[in-house]
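Researcher: Quick test of sequence recovery. C-alpha cells follow.
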C-alpha cells in the first residue's frame, strides 16, 4: 500500500490575514458580571465555544461564559502563536461548529474565502472534499472561530474573569470569580489542559514549550516527543540555533494525530462503552502517544543530517536545570536554554469543585456516561479532556468537543424545559 507523505510547505501558511467580519455585533461583554444565569460556561476555548453555540441552537439564551482572557479562543491562539504554529493537526471535519443545523461548517467557511487562500491551502480543500486527510491553516481556523462566536452571540456573552470556585448549593451553583459571583442553574466546565510541570525532584529553572526561547540563546535542549517539541525545534533552527533533542522513545513517531483514528468514529468510542475501567485506562495509555506531524519529517531529518540538530534517542531524563539535562545513563546534554515539552495535564475540576463532587479516580472525574454530568452533582457537566474516560482519548480533540457538546447541550436544554428537536426534525431542517 502506498503511503501518502505530505509536503512541508503546509507548515508555511500565512498568519495575520484580514478576514471579512460577520454582519453582527462582535463586541465583547462589558460592565459587571450578571448576578445569575441559567448556564455558566467556565472557559471560552474551542470547547466552550462549541457548547455555547449548541445551546444557542437549542434556544437556551441565558448563558454566561467566563474566561481568563475575556475573548473566545484567545488563549488557544495565543499559545499557538507562541509556538509559531501555522496549521492545525485537526482536519477540516473537526471544527467547533454545530452539526445537524443550518450552520456554516469549517470547510464551507474556507471555500467561501477561496480567493484569500494560497495554492497549497486550496489543494488541502480539494483533499478534504475528496475525503482525504487535510490540514487546516491556523489563520482560517481563527477567522472561522470568530465567525461562529459572533453569529451565535458568544462574543457578547463572554466576560473576562478568573474563576476561583464553583460551590454547589441547595438551589443552584455559586460560581466565584475575581470580579464577583454568578449564580447558575447549571455549570459546564470547559477547562482544557495545562502544561505538564517538571517532576518535583528535578532542579527547575528551565523553560516550557509555551514560553519564548530567550533571544540571547545560541543553543537549546528540547525534551519531549510531541508536536510542541517539533515546533520549538523548527523555530530554533530557523533562528540559526544549535538544537539537541532528547527523546525517551527509541525513535520519533510521525503520525497524523496522537490518537488512533478509530477513536474519532462511533465504533472507536463504542470500545469505551463496553469496557471496564481498567481496560479504559489501558486504552488511554496505549492509544494516545506523543507524535509529530508528517510535515516536519523532511525538515528535522535534513537538520540532523547536516549537524544542526542532534537527537538523543532512547534516553530518559532524570534531572533538568538551566543549561543542562541529565540522562539516566549518566551523561549530560548541555545548551544555553532548556525547554520542556513533556505534554499537558487535563483539568478535571479539582481545585474548583469540592473533592466529593469530582470523586477523582486515577486522575479522572466521575462522570455520567450519558450526560457527562458529575454523578455527585448533575448540575455540573464537563466537556473536553475531562471526559476522556467516557468518550476515549479523542475527547481532548476539537472533534471530541463536538461529540461531548451534543450530550451536554441536549441534557441542559431538556432540564431547563426547552424542547429539544428529534433527529428526524433536525434532518428536516437541513
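Model:
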Amino acid at each position: 500500500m502506498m503511503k501518502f507523505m505530505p509536503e512541508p510547505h503546509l507548515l508555511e501558511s500565512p498568519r495575520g490575514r484580514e478576514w471579512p467580519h460577520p454582519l453582527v455585533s462582535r463586541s465583547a461583554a462589558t460592565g459587571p458580571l450578571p448576578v445569575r444565569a441559567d448556564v455558566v460556561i467556565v472557559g471560552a476555548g474551542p470547547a466552550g465555544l462549541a457548547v455555547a453555540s449548541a445551546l444557542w441552537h437549542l434556544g437556551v439564551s441565558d448563558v454566561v461564559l467566563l474566561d481568563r482572557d475575556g475573548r473566545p479562543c484567545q488563549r488557544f491562539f495565543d499559545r499557538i502563536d507562541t509556538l509559531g504554529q501555522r496549521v492545525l493537526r485537526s482536519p477540516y471535519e473537526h471544527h467547533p461548529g454545530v452539526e445537524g443545523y443550518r450552520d456554516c461548517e469549517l470547510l464551507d467557511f474556507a471555500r467561501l474565502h477561496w480567493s484569500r487562500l494560497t495554492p497549497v491551502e486550496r489543494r488541502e480543500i480539494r483533499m478534504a472534499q475528496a475525503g482525504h486527510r487535510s490540514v487546516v491553516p491556523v489563520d482560517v481556523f481563527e477567522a472561522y472561530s470568530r465567525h461562529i462566536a459572533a453569529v451565535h452571540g458568544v462574543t457578547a456573552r463572554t466576560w473576562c474573569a478568573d474563576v476561583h470556585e464553583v460551590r454547589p448549593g441547595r438551589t443552584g451553583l455559586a460560581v466565584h470569580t475575581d470580579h464577583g459571583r454568578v449564580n447558575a442553574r447549571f455549570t459546564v466546565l470547559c477547562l482544557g489542559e495545562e502544561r505538564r510541570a517538571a517532576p518535583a525532584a528535578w532542579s527547575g529553572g528551565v523553560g516550557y514549550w509555551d514560553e519564548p526561547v530567550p533571544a540571547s540563546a545560541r543553543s537549546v535542549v528540547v525534551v519531549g516527543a510531541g508536536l510542541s517539541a517539533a515546533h520549538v525545534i523548527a523555530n530554533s533552527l530557523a533562528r540559526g540555533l544549535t538544537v539537541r533533542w532528547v527523546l525517551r522513545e527509541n525513535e520519533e513517531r510521525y503520525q497524523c494525530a496522537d490518537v488512533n483514528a478509530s477513536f474519532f468514529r462511533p465504533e472507536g468510542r463504542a470500545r469505551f462503552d463496553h469496557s471496564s475501567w481498567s481496560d479504559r485506562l489501558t486504552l488511554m495509555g496505549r492509544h494516545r502517544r506523543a507524535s509529530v506531524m508528517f510535515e516536519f519529517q523532511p525538515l528535522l531529518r535534513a537538520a540532523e543530517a547536516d549537524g544542526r540538530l542532534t537527537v538523543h534517542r532512547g534516553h530518559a531524563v532524570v534531572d533538568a536545570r538551566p543549561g543542562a539535562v541529565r540522562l539516566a545513563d549518566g551523561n549530560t546534554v548541555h545548551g544555553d536554554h532548556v525547554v520542556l515539552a513533556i505534554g499537558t495535564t487535563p483539568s478535571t475540576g479539582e481545585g474548583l469543585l469540592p473533592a466529593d463532587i469530582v470523586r477523582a479516580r486515577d486522575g479522572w472525574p466521575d462522570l455520567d456516561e450519558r450526560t457527562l454530568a458529575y454523578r455527585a452533582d448533575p448540575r455540573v457537566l464537563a466537556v473536553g479532556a475531562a471526559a476522556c474516560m467516557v468518550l476515549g482519548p479523542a475527547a481532548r480533540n476539537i472533534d471530541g468537543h463536538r461529540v461531548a457538546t451534543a450530550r451536554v447541550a441536549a441534557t441542559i436544554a431538556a432540564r431547563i424545559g426547552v424542547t429539544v428537536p428529534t433527529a428526524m426534525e433536525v434532518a428536516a431542517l437541513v
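The first strand starts at residue 36 and ends at 42.
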